Amino acid sequence: MKTPFTLNKIALATLIASLGTLSACSNDAVTSIESNETLSKTAQIWPKLNIAVKKDADIEAKIVNYLKTMTLEQKVAQMIQPEIRDITVEDMRKYGFGSYLNGGGAFPNGDKHATPMDWVALAESFYQASVDDSLDGSNIPTMWGTDAVHGHNNVIGATLFPHNIGLGAANNPDLIEQIASITAVEVMATGIDWVFAPTVAVVRDDRWGRTYEGYSEDPKIVHDYSAAIVNGLQGKAEGDFLSDKRVISTVKHFIGDGGTVGGDDQGNNIDSEQSLFDIHAQGYVGGLSAGSQSVMASFNSWNGVKNHGNKYLLTDVLKTRMGFDGFVVGDWNGHGQIEGCTNESCAQAVNAGLDIFMVPTGAWKPLYNNTIAQVKSGEISMSRIDDAVSRILRVKLRAGLFDKPSPAKRLYSGKTELIGAQEHREVARQAVRESLVLLKNKNNLLPIAANQRVLVAGDGADNIGKQSGGWSITWQGTNNKNADFPGATSIYKGLEEQISAAGGSVTLSADGTFEQRPDVAIVVFGEEPYAEGHGDKDNLEFERGNKKSLALLSSLKEQGIPVVSVFISGRPMWVNSELNASDAFVAAWLPGTEGAGIADVLLKAADGTIQNNFKGKLSFSWPKSAVQTAVNKGDENYDPLLPYGFGLTYGDKNVLADNLDEDSKLDNSGLTSMDILVGAPVAPWRLLLKSGNELLDVSSSTHEFGAIKYRTEDKTVQEDARQFNFSGAEKASAEIVTSFAEDTIAYVEANSVISFDIKLNEALTSDIALAMDCSGECGASIDLANIVDKTVENKWQSVSIDLDCFADKGVNFASLTSPFSLRSNGKASISVANIKFVPNKADEATLSCK
Predict the structure, then answer these.
(1) Quick check: is 217 catalytic?
(2) Among 89, 99, 500, 700, which one is most buried in terms of CB atoms within 10 A?
(3) Contact (CB, 8 A) for 754 and 678
(4) Is 486:156 a contact under the CB 8 Å cutoff?
(5) What does residue 572 show for φ and ψ, rounded to 5 degrees?
(6) Ranges under pLDDT 70 in the chain
(7) Beta strands in 563-692, from DSSP E residues, in sequence order
(8) 663 carries an active-site annotation
């Protein structure tokens, strides 16, 4: 995939000249390409792409004319992308933002059940405000970006396709292009112009919570799929490129997000530059060559440098060497993670090559003002601003946004019959069929004769939210009911329809109980929905510490009932025990709204013939232990349980016996204390205050917030403790939280305690609870009066609580969001310090629950 490239003196001079002041804008020696040596290295690794969409002289002339007439304020406004929850139509009229977005879980009018017409109405109102030049003097149309990552997934009633991991198992680029074109039509029906897809991450460690957004561990599939999706979303360059039924695509996240150390979301990728290209860049080679008009920068770092601020990658590699002439958009306040930046100010990102700030929350206004000031002071050059705005205008002109009717008047806008149209659902159902991978089929149990008595069990059987996963209506895919997916079909409903039609009988029983003994049981189980951050794990064991699905499988097997497992997951997982308890085992991934596609493969037709054979093959290697988290095709000493490309078809010899090793290989012997608040909150933990329903992140040494006062206090050294005073005016709390759930179940297994120092600054006269919280609105609390000596005032006490005391009350330590919260309705004054999880201390705990 490399293109020969020789630098002569003229080419070198031209390249350096074209960079102009861009190189001068960056003070980062890591990203400088001023030396011939670095230029040569870049040319050796990164190809000059033959991009299908070529520059048009008329468009380029229009760009020049626009730049001549635009003020600095108008130009910077093109670079600001706020979120629909944070701006009004009047803000759009006043500032003329170049674009805006709806984040996952953001809806018109804040209504989860907003209709397609509500989406169109919002698009129309923002568009009309953007072209109204009465306040900002600009009539440049804005554009709306949305995360339509497996269909138009934010909209009630839309067709939701299998997540990317399932599509990768199908390995059918033509089908992928068709899915993308359908997605474009459903997006256009709501008046939206721009889609943040495809994700082209090549996942190397399956603990990453975004694994299911990757198509494969093989860069070749990612390369081919990226081109197919871009063509489906945008249309082909020589075809109906960005026509009335197409949307702008975004290849994301540039670059290396799937290769961070430990699969840590937003973490550090330490690959060599050659590996960065060979593994992680192939989706960009495919998607950008096809003509994708935007690229999203990634949260991750490459060798310690945040990508949002990496000029070498964004400018020297992506734009200059590879020849990308569209725009680079940031990810959700990703610029604020650059060293020396905040969400409100980041000249470094602009200088590095970021063209559009994705800036949700109220940070957009100070960022807009600060960026203008930084240009006026010379910290950002005008040439860099003009380059960014040129790229934005180029894409808008190519997309015809200056010429197309307003969103409400476009070809597909408001055609609600297109949202979840039956022909769209048929394609999604085909994708489900082709994505299924058969891992085990003892005694050729599958396919099942549909005229039998069938038990359908498991908590995923009749749960459309679970089968759809994250990025399904809500960001994390949680808090959804079947009724939130009108027109969709659960896995159970698909089975029930075909079994009944064939003369069989079906019983739905989540817990596996029954009155009439079934001939066969189909058990649907798997991961609960999650998205980025919350989905990160520290190992690949399924249902670690709570083997409820295994108990169900084992119960049925002990009764002599043949068991077919349908496993819902966003990644390969260590399920050796579940495999042993199953006669047949199907990796169904996250199939989306068309659960009937599973019945199409598992069941025989009414006449006893095979309806559809298994086509899916593993695009991710399957682990043989819980700690085999980074096992990829081509690795040295490659030894998975099931290799890349594995997948049985009907009639194949079964390869998995019932005696797989059930030792997870997890070892907690080296587990050390986890600091939560030691001197200050320890990352990723942070402190916030809550009074009533209002929240405040602690940002200074003292706060007064509603019914709670906070201040730092000296215990052993300066400001190493925290004091909280509850007034009793309303319910209040001091909570140590994290933005994303943490997998801390190892501490429960290691007989750990939560240990802390506490001081009662006055007599404890009202109830105050110590609580822990976890994802999915789970949590538990313990009355503080039961664990402290209430007779000791104004003296520090050391207290410890067995973590089992919280686990027994329902806290899921695999998805912990708050390890320590103090909550009270009454009056109290308490100080705390030195909060930790300490292993192997449960037997000595102040409160033990063994």
Answers:
(1) no
(2) 99
(3) no
(4) yes
(5) -65, 145
(6) 1-39
(7) 563-568, 584-589, 674-678, 680-681, 686-691
(8) no
Q: Tokens representing 219?
A: 């860069």
* Active-site annotation holder among 532, 538, 773, 802: 532
Residue 92 identity: M
C-alpha to C-alpha distance for 714 and 697, rounded to whole angstroms: 21
pLDDT of 365 reads 97
Q: Is residue 23 exposed (0-12), middle (13-18) or buried (19+ Cβ within 10 Å)?
A: middle
pLDDT score for 449? 97
What is the model's pLDDT at position 39?
65
pLDDT for 10 equals 29
DSSP assignment of 39-51 equals HHHHHHHS-----
pLDDT at 498: 97
pTM of this prediction?
Answer: 0.88
The packing angle between helices 382-398 and 57-69, to 10°, is 130
In 197-323, beta strands by DSSP E: 250-254, 268-269, 294-297, 301-302, 305-306
Preceding omega of 198 cis (within 30 degrees of 0)? yes
Q: Which two tokens stand for residue 820?
A: 């320590």
Which tokens in the block code for residue 377?
């002071």
Beta bridge partners of 438: 586, 648
Residue by residue, DSSP assigns 220-256 as HHHHHHHHHHHHHHH--TTTTTT-TT--B-EEEEETT
Q: What is the reported pLDDT for 62?
A: 98
Question: How is residue 153 written in tokens?
Answer: 């997934």
Q: What is the pLDDT of residue 25?
A: 39
pLDDT at 15: 34
